[in-house]
Amino acid sequence: MTCAYNKHWRAMLAVNATVMLGVVLHKITLPPYIPYIHLLVDYHHGFIKRALVGAIVGLFTAKVPVWLVFAIGGGVWLITLALYLKLFRRTFGFDRAQLPLFVFTAGSPFVFKNFLFTLGHFDIYGCLGVIILLLVPASSLCYVLLATLISAVLVLIHHIHLLMYVPTIVAIVVLRCYLARPIARLDLAVGASALLGLGILFLAAQFLGTMPLPEVDFVSYLQTRMADPSRTELLQFAYVWYQPLSKEVQDTWARMPSNLLGVPVYALLLWLHAPLWSYYRDLVGALEERRHRQIVIAALIFISLAYVVMFAMVFDYSRWISSWVVCMVMMLHAVKTLPATKPIAPIDPDDRRTTILGWIVAAVPRVGIIRPF
Description:
Distance between the termini: 35 Å
C-alpha cells in the first residue's frame, strides 16, 4: 500500500511540472503591462519609487525589448526554485516520507505556479531574499546587516515589500539569529537601527519618490527606452507612478465588494492545504521552549497583520494571499530549525483524504493577480 501511495505522490510532482509548463506558455501570450514599465523606469529624473530594476536593466541595454520581461522573470523564477529545492533538502530532506510536504509547499498553486503566472512582477524577489537568508549562516551580526541590505533592495524594487516580505525577514532574523545566542546591547542597537533605516527608506520611496515631470513627458521618456516605441499600449499604466497613497486606498475600497466575493475561493484553497496546516501546528507545538512557541506565534500574527494592512491599501488580493502563504512556508523552514521536544511525524502519505487533497492541489494551476483565477 505504501509503495502505491508513493507512486501517487511522485505522479503529483509530474502533474505539477506539466501544469507549470502550461501556465508559462499561457503567460507569454499575455501583454506584460506593469512588468514591462518596471524595466523602463529608472533614476534618470532623480530618486523614483519602483525604479531599481529598471535602473539595473539600463546599465546593460539602452533599448528594452518586451521579451526581456519574460527572460528576467523566468531566470529569477528558476534561481528561486533551485534555491528552494536546496533549502527543502537541507530542512526536511527528499526521502519518500517528505513528498506530501513538498507537494503542499512547492507544488501549491499559491507558490511557484502563481509566481509563473505573475512572471515579471516583483513578488518573487521577496521570496528569493527570504530563501537566501534561510540558507546562509546566522551566527553573527553580519546576518542582520545582510537581512537589512536585502530588505532595502526589496523596498527600492517596490516599497510595498515593507509589508509583504520584510516582516517575514524580521521574524527569520529573530528566530535564526537573536534566539540562537545571548542578546547584547549592540545586537539590539543594530536591529533597531536597521528597522529605523528601513522605515525611513520606505517613507522616502512612498512620499518623496514621486515622478517630478508631467505624465506626458514621462511617457515620452519611457518610449525612448522601448525597443519598439510604437507599442504605446504597453504604457497605459504609467499613471501608477503618479497615483498617491490616498487614491490607491480609495480604489481598493471601491473594489472591495467585488474583491470580497473571492474570499470563499481563497478559504477553499487554504482548506485544501489542511495537511500542511496540521503539520505546521504540530511543529510549533513540539518546540522545546515555551518562549520559542510564543515568539513564533507572535511572529506569524505580526506577518499576517502586515498583510491585513496591505489588503486595505492595494487591491491585488490574489497576489497578496499567495505571498502570505509563501511567507508561511518560509517560516515553516525557520521553525523547523528550532529545538523540539520530539520529532514530528511527516504528513501521512497513505492517508486517503490527504492524497485526494494532494491531487487537487497539484492540479490547480494558479491563484491569480487580482481575483481568483
